[in-house]
């Protein structure tokens, strides 16, 4: 390919030739690819099927959705880019990796959007719809030219593909169904199992007329043929067959299924991105399990309705994201005060305010921990993988019930919309709560019969004869009588807090990835786990004594952290939330605002924890973290060699 | 409650217990003397006694305010929650436990100001519950601030030169909501009418909204004193399908025949008039009830696991 023109000659001419072109085989253990189209052209569906099928073929997979902020942004603009990034390979994949190696783009503008994000590898292979380059509209041709000039500097290998023209051979409206042609291209390039793809297509369109899935399968075939006849390469990635049963899904699906598996029967919510898909999924299937989803008039009501349902004997769930969590604040305080079990799932997005609705951030940690006025102890936990999104709901339900408390589960947009495969959970009846018991309450029983050691007490719910009492958000005694006295208030606070100490006793320290001691320990929480561990592995391969640990329970904070930290010379968190960089204007060690986990860890452990955080509205990349580790290590060495 | 539910919850039909007034609560309320809330409490206890409600099957949900202390003075289950949010809590309770009798007690600030959004939507959901809005035209608990129902010109601590705007009319407002099913007005100073009205509300299947004009001698004495003394300032809405209190017409002589099925007339009558109108403005039991629609059979854990395994197959690799 000449460096002056990024457009490769291969396949630039639409061809009737269906002969196979000889192929260079690119051998690699993994690849990162992207499918981008204008919003509404179906690149997401194409990506989802690709991911599902590669997972079914035993590849490790991680996907990231590319979602425009508007429903129908103007077509052929960078803002319209919609699609999927897929990283897949021989081994387990835990994050989206560093660079995209292959792109299928439905027009040059959506390609530009990905190019401008600096997301594409220098030698990225780009398969792009060719019709725009020779479009009858002069302006479009100009836009194409300008785009090619802009990306001309890069070393991409650009392969124009007459997608619509090819599709026209089978369908009248090629804009619909082009995504299946693209899927065919990819299937051929990566050697995906076509029968498995057809199965997926049939499942997707099961509710539509049979012709729909037929024509989609035809287009798939066309794509395969075109690649066969025109491309001079294919990519071969080895597979390791796994023999354990596995499932593949995204974190919101996993959380919804986890909620069902936990025996929760009630979810109240108000739609908010990126948590809506949990609610959609629950709306679709919860009733089959005797569960109810109530869409409230707002998030305040959703919290209230969930609390009402919990009060009446269930453990209820409310699902939300940052702005909704803010609205639920007062009700969460009430649940804590009255010790009504409640599970709150917060699929975090960028903030503050409406922020980045579709994009990932880990900025709700402190709000989740401290969002209520007054002393309001609650449990906060953060799943780090899709699998953990499933199991977190079961754990959360159990803790909420057993400890009569609020459990906030912090997922995020990366986990919520990313797909990964994991071991199929072996469902267990013991995950369900026992059905409500309406036994009579003895005259010696009290609604807050706190065990002074543990703060635990047994819940009495409406319907139990002899148990009548009024619960109140005012301070109250063991009989739930309002009591503003100094002792009663101290006791209530002690008891609600004691429960967390008890829970803390049941926990174990987080495992360490790498050696148990060393020069630098990287600490993370939530969805960054895979990227952090991959970065740490690379740093270790470079010969650096670096390890990492990942915290699941943020409140109460998992035990043993101080001991772990003390075995390392330095500790640094890596998070997707804001912190001041020390070299930024006006920033001093004294006024520096820290990452949220760093803030917490310093307070709880008295260790001088540093942080490296970014808020790109994207998941962190292992390469970025690897660089940050290097920078940190060199600044440590510098400090040590500079005389004081 | 259906027989089936009764036996499901282990509460036999052969329940031999009978309840008298004291069984529903014998605590001395902490409201000011002369406060209209006392009278409402007495009527509510009477209703429960007359209907022989099982105390353990009855839940009173309230918000925050003087009026919201209500559940504390009853020997039923009670949920004294947060300001303005009684209705969502009651919604959650009734949706998950249709076997419970749910009552809601709110103040005018609670219902018409901070909780106004919930009021509108709860009216539309039309879930079976009895809703008492104790309207003293003021914020009582926080000491004399203007509420949405404070009459224009009435001076308070927050609008010392007099309330700026015409008062919101809770009856008109509720009658304007789609799927409204029961709206009535009564006053704490006409106990017989109060009891009859909340009984009608309790017996109504659906969301029954009762605005109770309530004296607050502490902060709005002048607003109600003359009214409470003068039967002729009232106009009773009477009809066989509304509330009719035998003998009351001897004192409250002004009355108006109003069929509560007629929503247009109800709306017209709810607009300002010279006299305060007491009675049932609207009643319609054929409106869809959200709690009915959303009623679901229960499942066992084993059944759910079986189904969930089928669901997981969809994701199987
Ligand atoms: C979120 C919140 N805002 C404000 C208050 C303070 N507050 C308590 S009661 C009340 C108003 C009470 O008026 P109303 O609802 O009419 O009840 P009343 O006391 O008159 O019976 C207010 C503003 C509160 N408790 N919570
Ligand atoms: S302030 Fe008014 S409403 Fe409150 S208790 Fe006293 S009289 Fe009743
Ligand atoms: Mg009031």
Fold-level CATH name of chain B:
Rossmann fold
Taking the sheet with the most strands of chain B, its summary is:
9 strands, mixed
Number of domains of chain B: 1
Supply Rg of chain B: 21 Å
- N-to-C terminal Cα separation of chain A, in Å? 55 Å
What structural category do the secondary elements of chain A indicate?
alpha/beta
CA(first)-CA(last) distance of chain B: 47 Å
Which CATH class of chain B? Answer: Alpha Beta
Using DSSP, what is the number of strands of chain B?
A: 9
Stretches of chain A where pLDDT is under 50 for at least 5 consecutive residues are 1-17
Q: Biggest interface, which chains?
A: A-B, 70 and 58 residues
Query: The biggest beta sheet of chain A, please?
Result: 7 strands, mixed
Which strand order do you get reading across the main beta sheet of chain B? 2-1-3-4-6-5-9-7-8
Name the CATH superfamily assignment of chain B: Thiamin diphosphate (ThDP)-binding fold, Pyr/PP domains
Query: What is the top-level CATH class of the largest domain in chain A?
Result: Alpha Beta
| Total beta-strand segments of chain A | 23
- Label the CATH architecture of chain B: 3-Layer(aba) Sandwich
Provide keyphrases for this structure:
heterodimer; A: 644 residues; alpha/beta; Pyruvate-ferredoxin Oxidoreductase, domain 3; Rossmann fold; 20 helices; 23 strands; B: 317 residues; nine-stranded mixed beta sheet; 11 helices; binds thiamine diphosphate; binds iron/sulfur cluster; binds magnesium ion
Structural commentary:
The complex is a heterodimer of chains A (644) and B (317). By secondary structure, chain A is α/β, with parallel strands linked by helices. Chain A folds into 4 domains: 24-236, Pyruvate-ferredoxin oxidoreductase, PFOR, domain III (Pyruvate-ferredoxin Oxidoreductase, domain 3), CATH 3.40.920; 247-430, Rossmann fold (3-Layer(aba) Sandwich); 439-506, no CATH class; 512-638, Rossmann fold, CATH 3.40.50.920. In chain A, α1 packs across α6 and α8 packs across α9 (276-285). The longest helix of chain A has 21 residues, at 210-230. Mean pLDDT of chain A is 94; it is low at 1-17. Chain B has one domain (3-313): Thiamin diphosphate (ThDP)-binding fold, Pyr/PP domains (Rossmann fold). Helices cover 32% and strands 16% of the residues of chain B. Chain B has helices at 3-8, 36-51, 86-96, 108-114, 116-125, 170-175, 191-203, 221-229, 263-270, 290-293, 301-313; strands spanning 58-62, 77-80, 101-107, 129-135, 182-187, 207-213, 234-238, 255-257, 276-283. Chain B has a 9-stranded mixed β-sheet, with helices on both faces. In chain B, α7 (191-203) links the parallel β5 (182-187) and β6. At the A-B interface, β9, α8, α10, α12 and β17 of A face β1, β2, α3, α5 and α11 of B. β17 (470-472) of chain A pairs parallel with β2 of chain B. The structure holds thiamine diphosphate, iron/sulfur cluster and magnesium ion. The site of iron/sulfur cluster has 11 residues of chain B, from loops.
